[in-house]
Write a structure and sequence with these properties.
Blueprint: H1 25-44, H2 46-84, H3 86-89, H4 104-115, H5 117-133, H6 136-139, H7 151-162, H8 164-182, H9 195-198, H10 205-241, H11 255-275, H12 277-302, H13 305-328, H14 339-349, H15 351-372, H16 378-409, H17 416-419, H18 425-433, H19 436-469, H20 479-539
Length: 557
């Protein structure tokens, strides 16, 4: 019996002339209205906005914490099954004759830089140091905090947060979009990933709402990432320049310093985005990967290599053994200890917040992964988007974070790293490793690396926003649209910083993450349905959809 043919085209209405020529007016104007309302509210009612956003954050964690935990566990399982299943793993994105556009080094560099590179510079020191003092194993009394026996639990939880789970939500969104775009000839936009479930309903209002949800999540996800990055960038600038106005009385960067850093980063991002994927983004990604390897080599030579090597291999073993239980464990809110602290640790401070952050970043990173992954098999794609980036994160955490912990364990740090702010802990570690001259040089290198990572993330995000809003058109957009959305991201970060600092940005991000978490799970189910139907078609001798050959990065007229 013949199967119903799949949807191979979506009629997404785009304007033919005027300012919005080539763009979906419903999606674009709807996104602008929502973002404008958020900006005006945070700008004119900043105190009330900051307080309400914090309340929303607490409500979201308590009400939807279990959903985030189990949804992410499902996505990890799904990605691994798709890669391991023989017939599915060999499916090539773009068809049998498709060839990859980028070398493996450039492909991996762009994925790592856009996906999580900024976080490495902040959290490769900050998270191990925090877990050294407090993690679920110390909270329940299984190990003593701030001791040598804590080291294994440090990496058990750090690897959990930055391993397969983080990369799986990027991976599943990107894989679904790449398959439906390059194998089913659908537009490269979020709504295409739901066509096996909802068919042509994705052409109208329902599709517009899906894409609007992706745009809002992307803007707020980028805002959190840039917020963390500019905080560390401003801290580094204060060390390099010695400018007192850049730090407040507590030693943290001032809003003025962060706004200066923000303007520098976003201006460079807009320029890079205007040059397209093949030029600015590719070059910057290659540069930041080379600088990252140089920084890692520095820590291996002058840091604590034996601690790093031991922690890396023991940490991976612990991660593999403990992952199933960690992935499926949720600690509910309670008035009784240690359950009350475990809830705060998981839902307010670490795991659930991280899962929401990755999900908010997933539409942008996933679509970007899809855009650069044509010609890869599903197995190669999962290896490149989940396994290798996870290993890279583990190396960062053991080499950089292991050095910081070793300095505290041996007493050389004397609490200097533990007491430093999150944005300053990498610099505090470097200061203890080398003399003042080399310290300033290394701080300058970190600042440059931060710029490249921040610009790569922001300019990739700007290009992806324009791709979604133009109904999946992958061509280079007119500079006015690149400038508009780059400026919009800058304004959103600015008003949220002034309304309530980084906390307000993180709270606003949850507003975008929650609806997209449901879309992400549905995309995974839609992909399974499509791949299963294709397998059935092959079994009964039907031909599959013939993929079209498309150029990735056309220049505007």
């Amino acid at each position: 019996m013949a199967l119903k043919p799949p949807v191979t085209d979506l009629n997404i209405k785009v304007s033919r002339e005027g300012f919005y020529a080539g763009f979906s007016k419903g999606t674009t104007i709807g996104s602008k209205i929502i973002i404008s309302a958020l900006v005006l509210w945070a700008a004119f009612f900043s105190e009330q906005a900051g307080a309400l956003l914090l309340k929303i954050r607490g409500w979201s964690f308590e009400s939807f914490g279990p959903w985030y935990i189990y949804a992410m566990a499902f996505v990890v399982f799904l990605c691994l099954v798709l890669a391991v299943f023989p017939s599915i793993g060999k499916v090539r994105l773009g068809g049998l004759d498709a060839k990859p556009e980028f070398s493996r080094f450039s492909w991996f560099s762009m994925m790592f830089g856009a996906g999580i590179g900024i976080g490495m510079l902040t959290f490769s020191t900050a998270e191990p140091i925090y877990h050294f003092a407090s993690n679920p194993d110390t909270i329940i009394g299984a190990v003593a905090p701030k001791s040598a026996e804590t080291l294994r639990s440090v990496y058990k939880w750090s690897f959990f947060h930055w391993g397969l789970t983080a990369w799986s939500c990027y991976g599943i969104v990107g894989l679904a979009l790449a398959f439906f775009s390059y194998n089913r000839n659908l537009p490269l936009t979020i709504r295409s990933g739901l066509t096996p479930l909802f068919g042509r309903k994705m052409e109208g209002l329902a599709g517009d709402l899906v894409d609007i949800s992706a745009v809002i999540a992307t803007i707020l996800g980028i805002a959190v990432t840039i917020g963390y990055g500019i905080t560390q960038f401003a801290s580094g600038l204060s060390i390099i320049t010695g400018a007192d106005w850049m730090l407040n009385s507590e030693g943290a960067p001032t809003n003025s310093a962060m706004l200066v850093g923000l303007v520098i980063i976003m201006a460079a991002s807009i320029l890079s985005a205007a040059s397209g994927v093949r030029k600015g983004i590719k070059w910057l990604s290659n540069i930041n990967m080379i600088l990252s390897f140089a920084l890692l080599a520095f820590f291996l030579i002058f840091g604590s290599p034996f601690v790093a090597i031991k922690s890396f291999f023991v940490g991976i073993a612990d991660y593999i053994v403990n992952f199933p239980v960690q992935a499926m464990t949720y600690w509910a809110n309670s008035d009784v200890e240690p359950a009350a602290t475990l809830y705060k640790w998981q839902s307010v401070w670490w795991t659930v917040f991280y899962w929401a952050w990755w999900i908010a970043f997933a539409p942008f990173v996933g679509l970007f992964f899809a855009r650069i992954s044509r010609g890869r098999t599903i197995r190669e794609y999962v290896l490149g988007t989940m396994i290798l980036p996870s290993i890279m994160c583990f190396i960062w955490f053991t080499v950089v974070g292991g050095t910081a912990i070793d300095l505290e364990l041996t007493g050389k740090a004397g609490g200097a790293i533990l007491s430093a702010g999150q944005e300053a802990q990498l610099y505090a570690t470097l200061k203890l490793m080398v003399g003042s001259g080399v310290f300033k040089l290394m701080t300058f290198m970190v600042a440059i690396l931060l710029i490249t990572y921040l610009v790569t993330s922001a300019d990739s995000g700007i290009l992806i926003l324009n791709t979604i809003l133009s109904g999946g058109d992958e061509g280079q957009k007119a500079k006015r649209h690149i400038i508009f959305w780059g400026s919009t991201v800058t304004v959103v970060i600015t008003v949220l910083l002034l309304a309530g600092g980084l906390g307000a940005i993180k709270s606003a991000m949850l507003l975008g993450a929650l609806p997209f978490s449901a879309i992400m799970v549905l995309m995974g189910l839609a992909l399974v349905k499509a791949l299963a139907r294709d397998a059935m078609r092959l079994k009964i001798g039907e031909e599959l959809v013939k993929p079209e050959v498309r150029e990735l990065d056309n220049q505007p007229a």
